[in-house]
Design brief:
The complex is a heterotetramer.
Chain A: H1 2-12, E1 30-35, H2 53-57, E2 66-67, E3 74-75, E4 79-84, E5 90-95, H3 109-120, H4 129-135, E6 136-143, E7 146-151, H5 175-188, E8 196-202, E9 206-211, E10 225-230, H6 234-243, E11 248-251, H7 256-261, E12 265-279, H8 295-303, H9 307-314, E13 319-320, H10 336-346, H11 351-360, E14 368-373, H12 382-395, E15 399-404, H13 407-410, E16 425-431, H14 437-444, H15 461-475, H16 479-496, E17 499-511
Parallel strand pairs in A: 1-10, 1-11, 14-15, 14-16
Antiparallel strand pairs in A: 2-3, 4-5, 5-7, 6-7, 8-9, 9-10, 11-17, 12-16, 12-17, 13-17
Helix pairs in contact in A: 8-11, 14-15, 15-16
Chain B: E1 7-20, E2 23-36, E3 40-44, H1 51-58, E4 67-76, E5 79-80, H2 86-92, E6 97-100, H3 104-107, H4 114-124, H5 133-143, H6 149-154, H7 162-175, E7 180-184, H8 192-209, E8 212-217, H9 220-226, E9 229-234, E10 237-243, H10 244-249, H11 254-261, H12 301-305, E11 311-314, E12 317-319, H13 322-326
Parallel strand pairs in B: 3-8, 3-9, 6-7, 7-8
Antiparallel strand pairs in B: 1-2, 1-4, 4-5, 9-10, 10-12, 11-12
Chain D: H1 2-29, H2 33-37, H3 44-54, H4 60-72, H5 86-121, H6 126-140, H7 143-157, H8 173-199, H9 202-209, H10 214-251, H11 257-266, H12 270-298, H13 300-303
Classes of the chains: A alpha+beta, B alpha/beta, C mainly alpha, D mainly alpha.
Chain lengths: ~550, ~325, ~300, ~300
């Protein structure tokens, strides 16, 4: 009786009764970090482009230029020190002695030359490769521990761009090893000079590392093993930290209250990004009649926003009062105190003044505008901020037609013709970088990608001034003069009210105090790729 | 004719109702009859008169939850089946009383072989340790004249003809050697030639096993051939019972009379078959008096007022009609 | 001997029909009217229509200081916000009322469009049979294999999220399910005598389909409509979870459940309230569907 | 039977070809992966270089030709994000999903069938009402919400089960329930209505006439007939599960193909998206064919047709 037996079999398939042992916390010697993304999870610095790669590539590869651990920005790395030549056309890097790759080969100037050229090679899709190609003329090995890079023209921030404080293009890769095993072999068994050795990578799930056994200049890891887990759902990451399955989990500001309710510690990384809103293509003829073309209206819109409420309620106090556009407390080439005062006064919440300005501009009973609300990868809280801003504008009588769009759909609109964006406002972001100038070039210079002041064919007065100010900064070798020129540029943008900072975002992490000891993050760097080697065990340094 | 044989099944004033959305359908409304060993009683009537429901009530297989037996007694060899619990009743079905259904196409389970379905019936029956179950199954098939039983055992229902399937159903029905077999229009779905073979088969089985048979049909040709006695049902009640010959020769109840008149005769010229005007009354609101009143040629006001009692006419021949009282022996 | 292919299709269609339109037999019991579901559906429609009048606050009005207030009956709750407030201080009750409107519109548009196409394809495919039938059925198979969420994501991403996109995405997926079931019913109805009779009288195929086939298939179709209301609302919720749902600030139940998910411990009402609303509505429509199926029961065909 | 299988395969190939075209078009409509890979301050020149490196600078029809020609050879191109052949990425993640699906399906069967039978056997009673309500709950609960609540209750509050990810058997409990509940609901309703349909047929009367008990009649005679339609919908449910897994795999951080599909869409990874959809379709069609064969095996009426 075949069919009868078949059905008995199907019914008999009882669920595998696994042992329902109590959830075992991860063992003491392994540091487990739960992340919302592992990027492309490709163990090769030239193959991943977006920020997340700093999570999983930093442990293995050192960067030519390192960090200033205390207050963010750049510091000594593989190169102990570096020097800009008198004529400003070349930089000389002096490497630290005694550095070794995980297979024992010494780190030499040849490796640095090879690494930089590999980043610039055609098959590299690393996002900074193009900038490097534009900047570097040629690279010369002076001796085993000295390398000189000749640049096309004077590039004051060139050294900084080889630091993870800015991008990943400074990773130092083993020349001999890669030339013997080839690119594929290198990606399967990656070798670097960092404090952690590669163990295994399970695609879409996790990456495992093992601490090096010798002391390391970045810091000798307290844990034997490091595991980075990919857990896309935030509430799941929270649950893992509460049950001890993970020591640290990346969370958004909205989950801080939930994390504290669960007895977890909160670590906030200051100055990781700046949430801004900006107006597009106001200089274009088709936007001529728009009320947004009146600077008083734009200033009113900024005064209408109660930034303190956004910090306290939308961000759950996990945010700070913003500095000017793309500027942070650790920014170089600008007089910080001056701009701190400016932002306190200019970005204040003053609805009365805002109403007055609107009336002066002839829009007492408000007007209609379009506002594109979106969130860049890694900062989903930009959408609630956008909604809050729209809410404040609505209270001011402005009719806001909000269009919430997924980043993949919004980003292309900002390139080329910008047809859909002309005459509208949108949320945007500036990443936590030590020098503001390159970010200003992107948005305000006529040749820049966003060119909000004007484009090469149609460049009104403001656009011309911005171009001149930018040229002054880039070509300036003298620090004092460059700072003055930078201040001039920041003032120009601030007074235009076309790109306005809302709040300075922080990277927030939930930590299980029983799994990892007290540690301090690097200001401006949301990723912990360069922090894991300094995280103590819970018994070594308890949480305050 | 087994006139003197013991009574196997006696039904007294059986009532079985259907509780539906349109009200209570009194499908079986006070039926009484007796069935003797080796005898075949025909239960005849138009469709919808409650004959199938009567059959189902005997084996207590009324459609749940609508159908319910509300009154009366069903005495099988003296035991009242209506008081039995479901497990006790299960023991009766197949072993002491069995039934053949109308449509062979749907009577057999399509996913099991014929052999499985017979073996299952045999396993329920009395343990006949002598030969193995399979051998007894093949004998059962042979007894219902199924050729090459060994192969047939492995066949599936859809591979057999209607007639063949009805034989298998027959084999299953008698596998437990029941004392009473209820055949609910077993041949209606078969074509004529197969019909005659099947009826002869039933007769043969009855002769061999002495089982009593209740034959439910609307076909008088079959009644004449198969039944020793006939009970005519109308609107939930039996209006006339008697020996087949007596009913065919001298029906006394106007409804039986009309039925007999509408059966085509071989002899004599046949111009236009008489038919009975009107419709049987709806079973969910039955009139008070005689239910055939509206269609009866001899109706008077007494018929409408009061339901006539069953009165004896001749030997084992009785009918429920006031006319009988008025002229005792019309013959 | 019917070709195996048709046998299976008939069986599958009948089975699916059995799933959605099966009815217990015999029909003795009296099918109680599902008053419960009538009330809930009536309330839902009333709420959706009168939302602007009865909602205590505007669904998008923010008041950041009183964010994440618990419902009135909990400690710290205020009667101004009966069901508490969300992350931006918006009134949960008002968003629930307005959300009913959005969910109903999406469900109505998707079901009528999707159902309509499905009904047409099902009838044509079932009635004509042969090559058109197998072609249409293979298209149905293709649509069923295409992942639900993926189509919605691709559409949301290319056409831009919004009520219209969600409705289109769900329509593209719903029609296949309707087509398959309707086809099964048509196959069953097609073999009935009155269809042959109509053809004998010289009716055109179109007339037969419209006059004879449609009425008999309508009750299964109606039942399918009610049973799929739940399916549509859940799809909308899942899309919101994946970030391709109805964009803020328009309130929708699916978006509310999705947004509230990271506050399970500290602000349970954010996802529990809309979740309960969805469950109540789906329960109501399912009971209504069951009752409708019994009431429109083909039992009338059998008498 | 062979003729049936061959014809079905031919139709599947045609279906896959149409599917490939649809996916190719839809993916490109949704945007360009290059935009997501470039930094905010990348210039047009950077974009051109990246497009060339990814092979997206060629005209669309040429890309289509390359894709189809490659597909015939089984090479579905290289994933843009993972820089690995798309098929390799897919088959790396497939086992994880396939470990979850059978458990969810069998689990659903083991619960749905008895519940369905009880509901049918005791039609109209409390048992029927309760199982009906459970079924509706299954349909009405968004799986991501169920998953999160289960994690909150069982791993945070009670600490009984691990909250997510793959691992020992205890890791499979919550994801299977989340994935399976939706199934239990659908199957239970189908088993109930199909069983009621079968219980009305004649051979059930005959079975009871043999003196068989109610339970034997239902479990031995009715159920096999009632389960025939269930098998046919097994294929449909399998297809739903593969897509439904996207949500469950996201909540439980399960590195399966569901999650992979979602990522491929969000990052506009054309080759990976095309590969994932085609390979999933092949699996679903294969399973459906298998189900039909099992169906024919089960129902003798069809087997000898």
């Amino acid at each position: 009786m075949r069919s009868r037996t078949l059905w008995a079999l199907a019914l008999g398939g009882v669920l595998a009764a696994g042992e329902l042992s109590a959830v075992h916390a991860a063992d003491k010697d392994t540091l487990v970090i739960a992340l919302d993304t592992l990027g492309a999870q490709v163990m090769d610095p030239i193959m991943d482009t977006r920020a997340p790669h700093a999570h999983y590539q930093a442990p293995i590869w050192d960067s030519l230029v390192g960090f200033d651990l205390e207050n963010g920005g750049i510091g000594p790395g593989v190169a102990e020190r570096w020097q800009l030549a008198a004529d400003g056309q070349s930089w000389t890097f002096y490497l630290r002695k005694g550095q070794r790759f995980h297979n024992g080969d010494p780190v030499t100037a040849q490796d640095v030359k090879f690494s930089l050229e590999r980043v610039m090679s055609p098959e590299s899709i690393s996002s900074g490769a193009a900038a490097l190609r534009r900047a570097v003329d040629r690279i010369e090995v002076v001796d085993d521990l000295t390398v000189r890079v000749y640049t096309k023209g004077v590039i004051p921030q060139f050294a900084a761009s080889l630091s993870r404080a800015v991008f990943m293009e400074g990773s130092v890769m083993p020349k001999k090893y890669i030339e013997t095993v080839g690119a594929k072999g290198f990606r399967d068994k990656p070798i670097g000079s960092g404090p952690w050795k590669f163990v295994r990578s399970v695609p879409g799930d996790r990456i495992e590392y093992e601490a090096v056994t010798y002391p390391h200049w970045r810091g000798t890891p307290q844990f034997k093993r490091l595991t980075l887990l990919l857990v896309p759902e935030q509430s799941t990451r929270l649950a893992m930290v509460r049950t001890g399955e993970a020591a640290i989990a990346s969370i958004g500001p909205e989950a801080v209250k939930e994390a504290r309710a669960g007895g977890m510690k909160i670590v906030s990384v200051p100055g990781t990004m700046q949430a801004v809103y900006q107006f597009w293509g106001l200089y274009r003829p088709e936007a001529k009649s728009s009320p947004l073309n009146d600077v008083r209206v734009r200033e009113a819109l900024s005064l209408a926003i109660d930034r303190q409420q956004i910090i306290d309620h939308v961000m759950g106090k996990e945010a700070r009062w913003p500095m000017p556009f793309a500027a942070f407390k650790y920014s170089s080439d600008m007089t910080i105190p001056r701009w701190e005062d400016w932002s306190r006064s200019a970005l204040r919440y003053d609805p009365a003044r805002a109403k007055q300005l609107l009336a002066e501009a002839g829009h007492a009973n408000g007007f209609t505008m379009t506002f594109w609300n979106t969130a860049l990868p890694g900062t989903p809280f930009m959408v609630p901020i956008g909604e809050a801003v729209a809410g404040f504008w609505e209270k001011m009588g402005v009719k806001v037609e909000m269009k919430t769009v997924e980043w993949g759909a919004f980003d292309p609109m900002g390139r080329g013709e910008q047809k859909g964006l002309v005459g509208t406002a949108s949320m945007y972001r500036t990443a936590g970088r030590p020098e503001p100038v390159p970010r200003y070039a992107t948005t305000f210079v006529s040749k820049g990608v966003q060119h909000v002041f004007g484009d090469p064919q149609n460049c009104p007065a403001l656009c011309v001034e911005a171009d001149k100010a930018y040229e002054a900064i880039v070509a300036e070798k003298d620090d004092a003069k460059r700072t003055a020129a930078t201040n001039r540029m920041i003032e120009l943008v601030a007074k235009s009210w076309i790109a306005v900072p809302i709040v300075e975002g922080m990277g927030t992490w939930a930590v299980n105090p029983r799994s990892v000891g007290y540690f301090k993050p690097i200001p401006g760097r949301h990723e912990f790729g360069d922090v894991t080697e300094r995280m103590p065990r819970p018994d070594q340094k308890p949480w305050p | 004719m087994a006139a003197g044989a013991p009574v196997v099944l006696e039904v007294r004033d059986l009532r079985a109702y259907l509780y539906t959305r349109w009200g209570v359908v009194r499908a079986v409304d006070g039926v009484s009859f007796a069935l003797r060993e080796g005898e075949t009683l025909g239960l005849v009537g138009e469709s919808g008169c409650g004959k199938t429901m009567t059959g189902l009530s005997l084996v207590r297989l009324l459609p749940e939850p609508a159908g319910r037996i509300v009154d009366g007694q069903v005495l099988l060899e003296g035991e009242d089946l209506l008081t039995k619990s479901e497990p006790e009743m299960r023991y009766v079905r197949g072993r002491r009383m069995s039934m053949i259904l109308q449509d062979p196409q749907t009577s057999l389970n399509p996913v099991f072989t014929i052999g499985d379905q017979i073996l299952e019936a045999l396993r329920q029956g009395r343990a006949d340790g002598g030969r193995s179950l399979v051998a007894r199954a093949e004998d059962a098939l042979r007894r219902v004249k199924v050729a090459a039983p060994e192969q047939r055992m492995r066949a599936y229902p859809h591979q057999m003809s209607g007639g063949m399937k009805q034989r298998v159903v027959g084999a299953i029905a008698v596998a437990g050697e029941p004392r009473v077999l209820i055949a609910d229009e077993p041949t209606t779905a078969l074509d004529v030639t197969i019909q005659l073979q099947y009826l002869a088969l039933l007769k043969e089985i009855q002769a061999r096993t002495r089982l009593a048979m209740l034959f439910i049909t609307h076909d008088f040709g079959i009644v004449a051939r198969m039944c020793d006695r006939v009970a005519v049902m109308y609107a939930g009640r039996i209006v006339e019972t008697g020996p087949t010959r007596a009913l065919f020769r001298a029906p006394r109840h106007p409804y039986t009379e009309a039925l007999m008149a509408s059966v085509p005769r071989m002899e004599g010229a046949v111009t236009r078959l008489p038919s009975i005007e009107g419709q049987p009354p709806p079973l969910h609101d039955l009139p008070t008096g005689c239910r055939f009143a509206d269609r009866c040629a001899y109706v008077d006001d007494r018929c409408r007022r009061e339901y006539p009692p069953t009165m004896a006419i001749g030997p084992a021949h009785e009918a429920a009609c006031w006319r009988i009282e008025r002229s005792p022996s019309s013959r | 001997m019917a070709r195996v292919e048709d046998r299976i299709d008939v069986e599958l269609a009948a089975a699916t029909a059995a799933d959605d339109a099966a009815h217990p037999r015999p029909r003795g019991d009296f099918a109680r009217l599902p008053w419960g579901s009538f009330v809930i559906i009536a309330v839902l429609i009333l709420v959706a229509v009168l939302a602007p009048l009865i909602a205590p606050h505007s669904p998008t009005e923010q008041s950041l200081p009183d964010k994440l207030l618990p419902p009135a009956w909990e400690a710290g709750g205020s009667t101004r916000h009966l069901l508490g407030t969300d992350v931006l201080g918006r009134d949960v009750l008002s968003r629930l009322l307005y959300g009913a409107r959005v969910s109903l519109i999406v469900a109505a548009v998707a079901l009528l469009a999707g159902g309509g196409i499905g009904l047409a394809v099902g009838i044509v495919s079932g009635y004509l049979g042969g090559r058109t039938d197998s072609f249409l059925m293979r298209t149905v198979d293709a649509t069923l294999t295409f992942p639900t969420i993926l189509i919605a994501l691709l559409l949301a991403v290319s056409l831009g999220p919004g009520l219209k996109t969600i409705a289109i995405a769900i329509t593209v997926l719903i029609w296949a399910r309707f087509a398959r079931v309707v086809r099964g019913e048509v196959l069953a109805v097609k073999t009935r005598d009155f269809v042959a009779l109509a053809r004998v009288h010289g009716c055109s195929h179109l007339r037969i389909m419209a006059v004879h086939i449609v009425p008999n298939v309508l009750n299964t179709f109606m039942v399918l409509l009610t049973l799929h209301i739940g399916f549509v609302i859940i799809i909308e919720a899942s899309l919101s979870f994946l970030g391709a749902g109805i964009p803020p600030p328009t309130p929708s139940w699916g978006q509310m459940v999705s947004d509230g998910r990271s506050h399970i411990a500290s602000a349970w009402w954010l996802s529990v309230v809309p979740g309960a609303a969805i469950m109540l509505v789906v329960l109501a429509f399912n009971l209504f569907g069951d009752w409708l199926r019994d009431w429109l029961d083909p039992r009338l065909r059998q008498v | 039977m062979q003729r049936f299988v061959l014809r079905r395969l031919a139709q599947s190939v045609l279906l896959l070809f149409v599917l490939a075209l649809v996916v190719f078009a839809l993916a490109r409509v949704s945007g360009n992966p290059a935009d997501l890979l470039l930094r905010e301050d990348a210039t047009q020149e950077d974009r051109a270089h990246l497009l060339k490196a990814l092979g997206l600078d060629r005209p669309v029809h040429e890309q289509l030709y390359l894709f189809l020609a490659g597909a015939l050879r089984g090479d579905l191109g290289e994933s843009i994000r993972y820089r690995k052949p798309a098929t390799e990425v897919f088959f790396e993640r497939l086992p994880n999903t396939l470990q979850l699906l059978p458990l969810a399906m069998v689990g659903a069967l083991v619960i749905a069938i008895p519940l369905g039978v009880l509901a049918a056997a005791y039609r109209g009673t409390i048992v029927d009402r309760i199982s009906g309500a459970v079924a509706v709950l299954g349909i009405a609960t968004p799986s991501f919400w169920l998953g999160i609540v289960l994690i909150y209750v069982f791993s945070i509050r009670l600490g009984l089960l691990p909250s997510s990810r793959m691992g020992g058997p205890s890791h499979y409990v919550l994801p299977t329930i989340t994935l399976g509940l939706f199934l239990v609901a659908g199957m239970m309703r189908l088993v109930r209505s199909s069983l009621l349909e079968v219980m009305g047929s004649e051979f059930v009367k005959l079975a009871r006439l043999k003196g068989l008990s109610q339970t034997v009649v239902i479990w031995k005679h009715c159920l096999p007939n009632a389960l025939i339609p269930v098998t046919t919908l097994f294929g449909v449910y399998f297809a739903l599960l593969i897509t439904g897994a996207i949500v469950t795999e996201t909540v439980f951080a399960w590195p399966g193909v569901g999650r992979l599909t979602y990522e491929a869409v969000i990052f506009r990874d054309y080759p990976l998206l095309q590969a994932v959809i085609l390979l999933k379709a092949i699996i679903v069609l294969g399973v459906n064919l298998g189900v039909d064969i099992v169906y024919a095996y089960l129902d003798p009426r069809v087997r000898y047709a």
